Amino acid sequence: MEAVSIGILGLGTVGGGTVTVLTRNAREIARRAGRGIEIARAAARDYRPERIEGLNQIGQIGTDLFAVVEDPSIQVIVELIGGESPAFELVMRAIETGKHVVTANKALIAKRGNEIFGAARRRGVMVGFEAAVAGGIPIIKALREGLAANHIEWIAGIINGTGNFILTQMRDHGCDFAAALADAQARGYAEVDPTLDIEGIDAAHKLTILASLAFGIPLQFEHCFTEGISRIDPEDIANAAELGYRIKHLGIARRSAGGIELRVHPTLLPERRLLANVDGVMNAILVKGDAVGPTLFYGAGAGALPTASSVVADLIDVVRALTTDPNHRVPHLAFQPDELVDIPILPMDAIQTSYYLRLTALDRLGVMGRIATILGEEGVSIEAIEQRAPAAGETHVTLVMLTHRVIEGQMNRAIARIEALDTVQGRVKRIRMESLSG
Ligand SMILES: NC(=O)c1ccc[n+]([C@@H]2O[C@H](COP(=O)([O-])OP(=O)(O)OC[C@H]3O[C@@H](n4cnc5c(N)ncnc54)[C@H](O)[C@@H]3O)[C@@H](O)[C@H]2O)c1
Ligand SMILES: N[C@@H](CCO)C(=O)O
Ligand code: NA
């Protein structure tokens, strides 16, 4: 059978990797897909030809993205430019002209996916986005198909490679934040705007997508709570280690009474948990289904070839399903589109978790007692407390506490009251803790 013609938009880290994988593994890909995949055209503002193995396999390379989308000989558009615009307009135009789409763009899917999938459904075309979440890990496929029998209870994942790389470097080498970030950028892990990685926005994009697939809810990026890693101090990493914990940047989506928790933040995890030992650029997603129990998916969360692995898997899926009836394909968000239920996302002060607290207080009789009283009055019970003796000549001590589970709203009130004491210096540092055992 004749090869399927595709057009690639963007020839950067992921675009280049996709060309390489399609070229290197062309024969095996064709054996799996049933037909060859031919890169008829590609377009990019710029690219590094010396970095792209297989570049000579591309029929035609230009700079006009829309010209590729309008080309009637192309059946599938692979969007790898990133960002919301013009990616959204390109994808919508591709759909309008009856082309299937494969994308690695989580910002686009998290923010505009409801519209994109609606348009794709009306036009009867497929949109693949496996590469958008956790790079090379086939987590979308797992949630949509492999775990389809389950009532999913919760998901917790390390879903930003750059952030995990930085935290790992800080812990292992006492390396500073800026140097670790520069290294992640040089390796092609980071987003064009790395604040998306560091501030947790990229992880929030991915978690939004995972939560939809797991719970059958529309994409609701605007309701995801997001806290980044830029305020994690080496001191907190060391304190956590002393207490038997590691700090990981987690995305957590959980069904609980009254709604769904959707939150990205630094998290203390007991050091023996598998997730606590996922280091460097590696990602991992723990999914708890009622029938299967906990399942863990681990692999490279970023980088050229791992991400291309997912892009090409989607391409193979599209090629295999080209002639199938659109109504009988696996739904984009795992649930039939008219079965998505708009369950509310819980506000952050309604969630329940335990906490690591660090504060600096005057080393004077009664100060500790006052803090403990406030915590008790707000319903916060302390699991462990450590006091760092003041250095010679110092008047203040550092207190590190671990609490039992409590509603975040109560913790906020307790922290506000503690910060208002004149015996307490500066802010109370708070990092959430999860056991991930239930
Ligand atoms: N880098 C990774 O490890 C990784 C992993 C998973 C998903 N992603 C996603 O894949 C997408 C691409 O990321 P990347 O790291 O390959 O980016 P990149 O910056 O390395 O490459 C982007 C490519 O698109 C081109 N481009 C961008 N905007 C353009 C425009 N307006 N007109 C013409 N060309 C344009 C650039 O010239 C370049 O060739 C993003 O959505 C990103 O979030 C990246
Ligand atoms: N910037 C992203 C790329 C993969 O999505 C990360 O570091 O995880
Ligand atoms: Na994936």
From TrEMBL:
EC number of this enzyme: 1.1.1.3
Catalytic function, reaction form: L-homoserine + NAD(+) = L-aspartate 4-semialdehyde + NADH + H(+)
UniProt pathway annotation: Amino-acid biosynthesis; L-threonine biosynthesis; L-threonine from L-aspartate: step 3/5; Amino-acid biosynthesis; L-methionine biosynthesis via de novo pathway; L-homoserine from L-aspartate: step 3/3
CDD domains: ACT_HSDH-Hom
Record-listed L-homoserine binding positions: E191
Protein residues bound to NADP(+): L9, G10, L11, G12, T13, V14, G15, G16
Record: active site: K206
Binding site for NADPH: K106
Molecular function as annotated in GO: homoserine dehydrogenase activity; NADP binding
Top-level class of the enzyme under EC nomenclature: oxidoreductase
Stored Pfam families: ACT, Homoserine_dh, NAD_binding_3
Residues covered by the ACT domain: 356-433
Keywords: Amino-acid biosynthesis, Methionine biosynthesis, NADP, Oxidoreductase, Threonine biosynthesis
Family annotation (Gene3D superfamilies): 3.30.70.260, Dihydrodipicolinate Reductase, domain 2, NAD(P)-binding Rossmann-like Domain
Gene Ontology process terms (BP): methionine biosynthetic process; threonine biosynthetic process
Family: Belongs to the homoserine dehydrogenase family.
Annotated protein name in UniProt: Homoserine dehydrogenase
